């Protein structure tokens, strides 16, 4: 398993515990995860360096962040704060049972079933939780719908609040100061940076996430998908489209 996946595990240790996953299944009691979360602060600090290029002659194929993650994991394992197998299980959990594929399934269902769509808009937490495979998902969640007249965007101006259990880990740009500050001031310019050009008459509404309230955008269903089943539709739905920073894929892109 790639070392970069270990960063995911470090960051997700507490969210997994918070959803009631058995402590022993993850490799230890809660105090160990408290320490792990503190350690993840270091990982979060160095994570922007992940894209740094290295000279192949430096003697290692690992990036700087991967080397640091390996060192951090070694220390935590040696001190008995976490087990390597537990990190593997956390990564597997978020790759197979929790993450953006949950959001894609939800949106595809909303596109196909008008009754579910209405339920999602009225109580997203309840509607999304029906898709949970482990514990519960979608807590404190609100769904906002895009229309030809209105485009929604989600931001967290204070930090990086985000529905991780529905959309997976937030992208680096979502947590950046540039995105958090510019989105509320000039959302149309930010969308242009992402390659999204909306008609001038389309209103753009920005939703500010908090620890108590998270948002997911229901993007507009692409034309030319009449008769598609939910599995086909789910392939069109991107993480960015559920944040409002992008649009769904075109049918030709997945056909």
What does this 3D model show about the protein?
With 255 residues, the chain is mainly α. The protein folds into two domains: 4-96, no CATH class; 100-254, Alpha-Beta Complex (Nitrile Hydratase, Chain A), CATH 3.90.330. It has 15 helices and four strands. It has helices at 4-18, 23-26, 30-46, 64-78, 84-96, 100-112, 114-122, 124-129, 164-167, 172-175, 177-185, 187-193, 230-234, 239-243, 251-254, and strands at 141-145, 150-155, 203-208, 214-218. The strands form two sheets. Strands 1-4 form a two-stranded parallel sheet. Helix 1 crosses helix 5 (84-96). The two termini are 30 Å apart. Residues 12-58 have low confidence and may be disordered.
Which structural class best describes the helix and strand composition?
Answer: mainly alpha
Gyration radius over CA: 19 Å
Q: Proportion of β residues?
A: 5-15%
Number of domains: 2
Descriptive terms for the model:
single chain; 255 residues; mainly alpha; Nitrile Hydratase, Chain A; two-stranded parallel ribbon; two-stranded parallel sheet
Helix and strand topology:
Layout: H1 4-18, H2 23-26, H3 30-46, H4 64-78, H5 84-96, H6 100-112, H7 114-122, H8 124-129, E1 141-145, E2 150-155, H9 164-167, H10 172-175, H11 177-185, H12 187-193, E3 203-208, E4 214-218, H13 230-234, H14 239-243, H15 251-254
Parallel strand pairs: 1-4, 2-3
Helix pairs in contact: 1-3, 1-5, 3-4, 6-7, 11-12
